[in-house]
Amino acid sequence: MERTIYDEDHEAFRGSIREFLEREVVPHLDEHAESHGLPRDFWLAAGKQGFLGLEVPEQYGGMEARDYRFNAVLTEELAKVNMTLPSCVGIHADIVAPYLVHLTSDEQKERWLPRFCSGELLTAIGMTEPSGGSDLAALRTTAVRDGDEWVLNGSKTFITNGGSADLVVVAARTSPEKKAKGISLFGVDTSSAGFSVGRVLDKVGQDESDTAELAFDDVRVTDDDLIGELDTGFISMMQFLPQERLGSAITNLAHAAQILDETIAYAQERTAFGQPIGSFQNTQFLLADLVTRVEVTQAYVDQCVLAHTRGELTAVDAAKAKWWTSQVQNDVLDHCVQVYGGYGYMNEYRVARAWRDARVTKIWAGSNEIMKMLIGRDLGL
User: For the purposes of burial, counting CB atoms within 10 Å of the CB of 300, is it exposed (0-12), middle (13-18) or buried (19 or more)?
Assistant: First the structure.
């Protein structure tokens, strides 16, 4: 079914992204996997193309698109290459960006945003902790007032871009007695004394990304590093999480759709018992099922993109999109591996790497179980 949410400007933007990826990224994918990270050259090249500042005002070097559909197009094209690109770029340009654009002072914008857009200042967000997982209200990292400064102590884990970030938006407890209402956000320079990167984690998939543990040992920050008002960090995180979950949904579906297209082509070419495997009824029925699931899901995600573009996407609808697309993605890719047979289990085949890469999508950005809880509560249950 033809998609109608994008116009000529969006499709022209899509073309520029594809050209960039073919030129700057695809030839180096093996290098990214071997080094477990995206090199700074990638970020600088992406910044030069304007891909990192879609939400940033022009006065700070951004494109100020004022249209989330451009974010969605970028996410889709990155996801067609692999899961790492929309994950790493998404953290910086789609997840951290709203915090730096909407919550910062003029001085902070001048300090951070121009280099954020150029790729000179790479960012990450420090929410998840070893003991908390999806329970952001239970975080233990603390920021204690000491004269004109704050002293940060604690740790974060599963932090995308954690090994290479220059600035981390850190959620810390500033008023413990207020529980969830006592959390604040700080922009922490990773060159600060007391900040350290622990392990760059050995993941099942997404070899190209540097997912790391972070530690804060008496890291000193000031009120000039406070992002937003004191003790409003949890509210801000809840405000911006729907965009993160929508970005996850867009990624999940675009990734699955690309591998499914490649699997259909493989089924037309691969022969068994003297005929293409796609000619067997079982394969035909399976692929018909998978294509239908993807296209029907795409219709819902597209409506979420339009709603978010209008500023109307609810947290509950974002939760529906996030959990459902991750389930569809994992189901589709598992079947695609089966179509490839033994080759589908070989890392040299994209379908195998895609299958590994996708498993985490049912966990990150809030586990699927948490998403269902949000939906259930909205039902009055």
Answer: middle
